[in-house]
Structures are given as structure tokens and as C-alpha cells.
Amino acid sequence: MQADLSITALILEASLVVQLVMLLLLAFSVFGWMMIFQRRKIIQEASVQALKFEDRFWSGVDLARLYQEIGARAQNASGMEKLFYAGFKEFARLRSNTSLNQQQVLEASYRAMRVVHSRQIDKLENNLSLLATIGSISPYIGLFGTVWGIMNAFIGLGSVQQATLAMVAPGIAEALIATAMGLFAAIPAVMAYNRFITRVEKIDNQYQNFMDELLAILQRQSSAPAKEGAA
Fold first, then answer.
1. Given a cut of 50, is residue 54 above it in pLDDT?
2. What are the C-alpha distances in Å from 141 to residues 30, 65, 128?
3. Stretch 208-221: mean pLDDT
4. Which residues cross the membrane (predicted)?
5. Alpha helices of 100-164 — where are they, by DSSP H?
6. Model confidence at 227, in pLDDT bands (50, 70, 90)?
7. pLDDT band at 23, cuts 50/70/90?
8. Residue 44: phi, psi to the nearest 5?
9. Euclidean distance between CA atoms 185 and 180, whole angstroms
10. Could you give the 3-state DSSP secondary structure of residue 36?
11. C-alpha distances in Å from residue 45, one per residue of 79, 151, 199
């Protein structure tokens, strides 16, 4: 009687250890794809919102007016909007303090933006380390299941007098499925991780460039009254 070598039959007839390995890899794959879709949405939104805000910022709008607009919806502000809001808020609060010089006011504004910047990047990178973990350990877990299944297949041959390929083929086939599942879980996770890290770095550069540009604008604004008074 010929053994059923369909994938479903091989999985159902696999040893308990190999089945547990397959179940774990299936969970890794499902969890990995969930994180991929979630991270993709969040990172894409952050990128689009940053471009929109930059267009708005460089359109010539009054910064005080822009600050008030963002303040009215501070809870729903995007990452770059929060950078601007934090920096301009600190600048406006300390600018009238006569005990502080221009450099101290600007440094305080930049520190406020740095805190928000760190939080926003942490938010974008959230769960990316889990994708990297899935991508790195899944092949090894699959390989463990394969080694275990092949070992059991050859151990089973020790109890028979005449070994044939038909006898060992199902055990080896079910073991190789574990390797395939490990690669199926790992490859999308690694590709997504590399892609997301690159995009987060690009957004990080956008944020840092904006912070430097805003600081230069605030420096010019803080110098304007002094120049006018000197004139």
C-alpha cells in the first residue's frame, strides 16, 4: 500500500515534536505578517504626513498661526507637527524671559524637539526588533524540526530487517516541511525589516533636517527685535 505523501497527510502524521515546531512556525508567520501590515501602515502615514506638513510649513504661513492650529488638535498631530509644536512652544515660553540669552532659549527649544523626536522614532521602530527576531530564528527552529524528523525516520529503520526508500520517504518529507515553514516565516520578516528600517531612517533624517531648519528660523526671529532696536 502506497503511503499518502500529500502535505496535509504528512503534517497530520508527523511526530509530536515536529508538529509543535510547525505550529510554532505557523504562529511566527501569522504574527510576522500582522506586524508587517501594521508597521507598513504606521510608517507610510508618518512619511506622508511629514511631506504634507513640510509643504504647509514652507508655504509662507505665519508660525504663530501654525502653532495655534496644531495646538487646537495636539492629540491628533503628526510626528513632524509635534516636533514643531514642542520647539515653538518652548521658544515662545522662554523668549520673554530676560534672564536667558538667545543661545539658551534656542538650546531649550532644540532639547524639547529632541525629546519628541526620540519618542516618534521609538514609535516607528516599535516591534521591528520582533520582526528581526522572527527572521533570524525561524530557519533554525525549522532546521531543528527537520533534524528531529529525519532522526526519527532513521531510528524507525532500525526495527526492520529490510529498509526501502518508501519506508523512509514519509519521515524525511514531513521533516523537510518544517524547514520550508521556517523559511516561509523568515523570508518575509527579513525583507520587511530591512525595508522598514530604511524607511524609518529616511523619516528620521527628515525630522532632524526639519529641526535644524526650524532652529535657524527661530534664531532669526529672536535676533529680529535686537536688530530693529539697534537700528
1. yes
2. 16, 56, 20
3. 91
4. 16-37, 128-151, 171-193
5. 102-125, 128-157
6. very low
7. very high
8. -65, -45
9. 9
10. helix
11. 10, 49, 12
